[in-house]
Amino acid sequence: MLKINNLNATIDNKSILNGLYLDINPGEVHAIMGPNGSGKSTLSNILSGKKGYEVSGEVLFEEKDLFELETEERAHKGIFLAFQYPLEIPGVNTNIFLKTSLNAVRKARGEKELDAIEFLKLVKEKSKELKFDEEKLNRQLNVGFSGGEKKKNEILQMSLLAPKLSILDETDSGLDIDALKIVADGVNTLRNKNNSFLIITHYQRLLDYIKPDFVHVLMNGKIVKSGGPDLALELEKKGYENFN
Amino acid sequence: MKEQLQKDFNNSIKNLSLSQKDIEIKKFCLDNFIDKGFPNRKEEDWKFSDLSQIIKNNIGELSFYNDQASTNKVDTSVFVDGLEHNKIVFINGRIEKIDFDYEKKDQIEIIDQSETINEFRNSNSLSDLNNAFTNKCFKILVKKGYQLIKPLIIYHTTNSKIWSKNINLRLNFELDKDSSLRLIDLFNDTSEKNFLNIFYNFELKENAVLKNYKVDKFENKNIKYSFNNIDQDKNSISETFILSSGSNFSKNEINCNLNGIYASAFVNGIFSLNSDKHHEIRSIINHLNENTKSYQLIKSVLDESSKAVYQGKIFVNSDAQKTDGYQLSKAILLNKESEFNAKPELEIYADDVKCSHGSASGSLNEDSIFYLMSRGLSYQQSRELLINGFLLDVVEKITDSEIKNLIKNMIGIKE
Lengths: 244, 415
Prior knowledge:
The complex is a heterodimer. Chain A is α/β, with parallel strands linked by helices. Chain A has helices spanning 40-48, 71-77, 94-108, 116-129, 147-161, 177-190, 205-209, 230-238, and strands at 2-11, 14-24, 29-33, 54-61, 64-65, 79-82, 89-93, 140-141, 165-169, 196-201, 214-219, 222-227.
């Protein structure tokens, strides 16, 4: 599904990614762990199309060159990034945003757009599943939401858009244990043999709830070690120092 | 310009039956205007908008005589649908229709003041021009305790019969004790390169409520100046909302005198500009008595090489203790060539007051755009959503829900 070959990235002449290789097949859950500044967020930004990076190398998503696709086209094709810091957007009603987003994606996929009633039914259903306070749907997007509510809102969006590849950028940071479980449940519900996940995290904790198939250690812009779920436990014990 | 002014002035007073004294007053105003000319950047209030240059560059030579003899056909297609309303229709500066069909006839008085000159002064020469050339003037008097059932829409329509003309308008409103009026000024121009010079005077008696919504939405190449004086007695409320968008140049001035205790004034506005449009709002709120309140919020979205100016002054005299004055302006610049100028002024002579002001401008937040695009929205959709959201809270300040919805539909703002 996703093939990254020798990805290099710099921003403002500072090199962030230095020859990163990664293969993700349908149905797989990959976790990337790494210390601060190792390039985790840069990787997720580049995959979802954020501007401002100088990149070289190759990224293929379902055999298509990702760099030829605009940010919104990547979303249409099924790439989703759950933001580390979801933005607050004043004046934009959450419901209207969700509906616009869902219909933009459905339209691009050749599916019928949902009318207001169909949409509300769906969004209420999903909110209930995620224990996301429905009252928030009528508020301005993320404005005044707590950290946990913002992250749940990301997972709500993920579950509405039903992406093929979901990238979770430190979604666990700032979550209490109950919110963490809800987020993990959201991911596990979406998990099937076609959908893949790339989970970026500092800590092993999230991986107790979302069992990864592969764990990678990212240091200085490249993957220095890959392994199974046990690698995360080993990291937790030894710290990143030993992998340098 | 001088010969043209004199010739047009002589033509214009010929048709009026004025006393010698009134003619003298008009002549005096004309001479003042000839002496001063159009305001230019040397005057502090006009330093961001040099009207003299703007007229020269966009219109060239103006003529000032308007033949008021022949009537214009009222094009009913410009009337607002879905909102029952009273009407005053101006076409090319001539009053064609005054209609208060929805109201109790004995509660509203329409007084023709055309042939009694009461001078209207402000600090610039445009009041002289207006005094010299206005040849029809009405006063709308809303009687004690009467609250108009339906809003009044004043249609300012111009069509291609006029070209390079100066049009002067004047209306006076008196809202007696406990009365209220909802007023929409709606501009609809299919003419080009004219200069409209509009003067309104409002007198609000105790407890009176005025809601004035000025909507200049449709694209046109005219130049507009509108001066609004609002005198407010005890407990009265004035709410002014300005949508400044359609004309090539527009300057709205709101001069508000809070004479009575507990009087309050609200001035909210939106600049939505593109191409090389240049618009300004100048407000002066004079807090002249205790416990008076003013609130102002101005938001701008400026594209291409457009320019918006907001000059807001809060004056608090020494008697006006417990004044509460607030103003904020925010601008989004969509283009490197666009420009926003804000000049807040506070002049305070009382010691127990609460006054604040703020101004911020910047470009659209790229991170917000990225966030929305990562959810499948196109750049255009993301931009529209953000701009919509930015402007929404000004529109939400409109206290009349019927008119709020009308204006939302007009600008395409969604909740």
